[in-house]
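Supplementary Text 2. Reproducibility record for the structural model of the 82-residue chain.

All settings were left at their defaults, and a single model was retained for analysis rather than an ensemble. We include the record here because the model underlies the residue-level annotations in Supplementary Table 4.
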Amino acid sequence: MKVIDVYEGYFAANGRFNGVERRGAKTALTAESDCGQIKYTAGVTFFPHRDETDFAVSYDACFEKVLFAGAGRRSKKRDSEF
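Retained model, structure tokens:
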């Protein structure tokens, strides 16, 4: 299976998950293709922020959603739609 990172961006965020303050978010769009099938997945993770230098990787505030899964292949048009 071929995995392609279509998009990745970092943003300021403000929230609280599992009792920990979050101040940053990473969003990603990933495409996986194999044997004529394509799947697009969007994901977001929120970074904890305990002090000015703390932007640790978060494993407890991550969310993913499959946007499309089916027959087809990756294209620039489909990438831009998602």
